[in-house]
Amino acid sequence: MRMGVAILNFMTPDEAQHRHNQIADRIRMHDEAYYIHDRPTISDQEYDQLYRELLDLEKVFSNLAGIDSPSQRVGGAPLSSFDSVRHRTPLLSLDNTYSHNEVGQFTARLQRLLPNEKLDWIVEPKVDGLAINLRYENGRLSVGATRGDGVEGDNITANLKTIRGLPLQIKTPLHGSVPKCFEVRGEVFLRKKAFAKLNLDRLASGEEAFANARNAASGSLKQLDPREVAKRHLDLIIYGLGFIETEGEPPFRTHAEALRWLTALGFKTPERTWACQEPEEIISALNALDQIRKSFDYETDGAVIKLNHLGLRERAGFTSKAPRWAMAYKYAEEKAETKLIGITIQVGRTGALTPVAELQPVLLSGSTISRATLHNEDELRRKDIRIGDTVIIKKAGEVIPAVVGVVIEKRTGSETLFEFPNACPECQGSIERTQTPDGTGVVWRCKNLECPAQVRARFEHWCCRGAMDIEGGGEVLAKQLVAHQVARDVSDLYQISLPQLAGLERMGEKSAGTFLEGLEASKTRDLWRLLFALGILHVGTRTAKSLGLHFSTLDDLALASVEHLEKLDDIGTVIAESLTKWFSDERNQALIERLRLAGLNFSSELFRSEITGKARPLDGMTFVLTGSLPTLTREEATAQIESAGGKVNTSVSKKTTYVLAGKEAGSKLDKAQKLGVKIIDEPSFLKLMGE
Ligand code: IVH
After folding, report:
1. In the chain, where does the domain assigned CATH 2.40.50.140 lie?
2. Which of 148, 587, 638, 665 fits 669 for a cystine, CB–CB 3.0-4.6 Å?
3. Considering only CA atoms, which residue is closest to atom 9 of ligand 1?
4. Where, residue-wise, is CATH 1.10.150.20 in the chain?
5. Partners of 346 in the β-ladder
6. Which residue among 92, 94, 97, 299 has the greatest number of ligand 1 atoms within 8 angstroms of its CB, and so is best to mutate?
7. Least confident of 143-147, 278-282, 370-374
8. Residue whose CA is at the smallest distance from ligand 1 atom 21
């Protein structure tokens, strides 16, 4: 049972410490069950409750928020850059092959090098992510770093701590002691589901989708704000050890034993491994892994074959860049070759211009592909893709087909360069080059808000399930509404009549009625849905919810400054600037007024009270402070009002709920009396808060 903050105030520091230890242990146990063993032992709701109690305790007893607390996974201020760290032993790469034959040559080579030894091998999945190194000192994570150049990497400890499957503190193994200092190596990656969700969110907020899960994981680790990284839900697998400082012998002699030891310490290790005694068994293991790896919830691009005995590894040694005792076997990607017939430009809801490859239809992983994304102009230039080229396509992240390259040998000389348009292909309006919020890409955008392609996409977006959820408002209707000039912007939807709708092609009276009912119902949707539906650049559902939680009304949000917005959870400078730019555009202001007239809900009170669990005593009330109060300072009174859901304004108007007046109150008091606004003193205010 979670205790309220008020009750926590009556705890002694010892009681609080005891309770904190209990909760922290339970959270660690559930984290391990969920993130390491994939076996949740508690519902999400119960977990959230535990976590909130932990935070509540730390709010009252701030000394409890120590480095070991589960709360410290997501924290810390954004960095301005990453420091460099030197790895205790270098992180090397692996020799690669695509051929079974070369795998045979690799094992034979090692046998020649170690002629009198019986060699055995471990085959593991090669996870397609980013290599990282974690240093543990006295059982605690001290530094986490990228591979970098193998000798030095970036210190990304704060980002890595957000990965729930990463132990901040290791467990004591049953056998042997924990080394004083050691480094483990692993791969950070995004699970397929987390990747799909991230891309959907990015597309919904007008950002470019990541081409694959690896790029998404890499882009996430490069973020300077750990809170942003936490939202990406990265994962980690540890596949080996680097430096280790032990008293006496390390508690393992083989790789298989080392993996078991790492598991006992609380690390997530490869989910399947194959122990092979003979070279032929390695080939069977490679085939077996290829059969099952598609069912894994993350991308693998091959297998790693490793000599099992660590002592023999030492004798085999290294070349300048890779160990002699391991090799990566890569599976050929599912790719197809086809002709690029043309390039079209798709204009999205936020005006983003995406080049699309029009292809001669070809079969790839079971489906016929005739279009593939070319991402953006920079990508097109980098790959030197020309119309008429024979191109190679593959499925990126299992879903979106993408063009990966050109078969240069098949060029005939008749191929033509694609001229990226210098105006919007749909409305001929001017376009501008913009940066994505994470700074990883450049996108051309059409600046014309009335561009028919943008309008169509905005209608569709307005009606989609995540936004205003209006049945029947899909692509077909959007096209007709624009083509027949029935509606120019989303506010016009609320003026459409039944006969007007029923007159459109493929629209019977019944579906017209359903759509109108949907429109009516949409008038009472939560403010966050409206915000998301408005299609403001970079405002996805998460940002919209965060805004809905903070602001009581759309009008309050419209008045907020960049500085104010930046202070909110989930909102950085790029989003804050995008919001203020949108609200300062007169055309958007006019749209808001038309939506207000149509009767749409602009208030977030319902959502806020649902989220906070109860309506707050001053929700929807505005206060003006004047004069000096007997006990409270102006700042304290403001903080109390805001934390109870109220707002503080500087000038009195008819809309002011209360003027809180103290000694030597001035003209504000006179104005309140004139307008008939209620005036209260500090004791009445405190009573109001108490109620
Ligand atoms: S062992 C001395 N095991 O593949 C290097 N690497 O191409 C030992 N990788 O940089 C690496 N899964 O980031 C190893 N099970 C696995 C792996 C793995 C993915 C990555 C690793 C490495 C790259 C080499």
Report:
1. 335-410
2. 665
3. 126
4. 452-597
5. 354
6. 94
7. 370-374
8. 131
Question: Looking at beta carbons, which pairs linking 489-497 to residues 24 or more positions away fall under 8 Å?
Answer: 489/455, 489/458, 489/591, 489/594, 490/458, 490/459, 490/462, 490/533, 490/591, 490/595, 491/591, 491/594, 491/595, 491/598, 493/459, 493/462, 493/519, 494/519, 494/523, 494/595, 494/598, 494/599, 494/600, 495/598
Minimum CA distance residue for ligand 1 atom 4: 126
Q: Which atom of ligand 1 is nearest to the CA of 328?
A: 7
Nearest protein Cα to ligand 1, atom 13: 131
Fold category of 96-330 in CATH = D-amino Acid Aminotransferase; Chain A, domain 1 (3.30.470)
Pocket lined around ligand 1, Cβ cut-off 6 Å: 92-94, 124, 126-127, 131, 187, 239-240, 270, 304, 323, 326, 328
Provide the pLDDT for residue 75: 61
- CATH 1.10.287.610 residue ranges in the chain? 5-71
Question: Which residue among 127, 218, 310, 331 is best mutated to probe the pocket of ligand 1, counting the most ligand atoms within 8 A of its Cβ?
Answer: 127
Q: CATH number of 622-688: 3.90.550.10, 3.40.50.10190, 3.30.420.40, 1.20.120.1560?
A: 3.40.50.10190
- For CATH 3.30.470.30, the residue range(s) in the chain are 96-330
Q: Give the Å distance between the CA of 94 and the centre of ligand 1.
A: 7
Counting residues of the chain whose pLDDT is more than 90, the rounded percentage is 52
- pLDDT at residue 314 above 60? yes
Centre of ligand 1 from the C-alpha of residue 242, in Å = 12
Per-residue pLDDT tens digits for 160-177: 999 999 999 898 776 667
Higher per-residue confidence, 675 vs 395: 675
From first CA to last CA, the distance across the chain in angstroms is 25
* Token pair 């060699």: residue: 119
According to the model, what pLDDT value does residue 137 have?
A: 93
- Options 1.10.150.20, 3.50.30.60, 3.30.2350.10, 3.50.30.40; CATH for 452-597 is 1.10.150.20
In CATH, the number for domain 5-71 is 1.10.287.610
Buried b / exposed e along 393-412 (16+ C-beta atoms within 10 A): bbbbbeebbbbeebeeeeee
> Is 126 among the residues known to form the active site?
yes
Q: What are the pLDDT digits (tens) for 50-102? A: 888 998 888 888 888 887 788 888 766 677 778 889 999 989 889 999 999 99
Q: What is the pLDDT of residues 560-617, one digit of tens each?
A: 999 999 888 778 888 999 999 999 999 999 999 999 999 999 999 877 777 666 656 7
pLDDT score, position 69: 86
Q: Does domain 335-410 have CATH number 3.30.230.20?
A: no
Pick the catalytic residue: 126, 306, 647, 668?
126
Pocket-testing residue among 87, 91, 93, 214, ligand 1, by greatest number of atoms within 8 A of Cβ:
93
* Å from CA of 185 to ligand 1 middle: 8
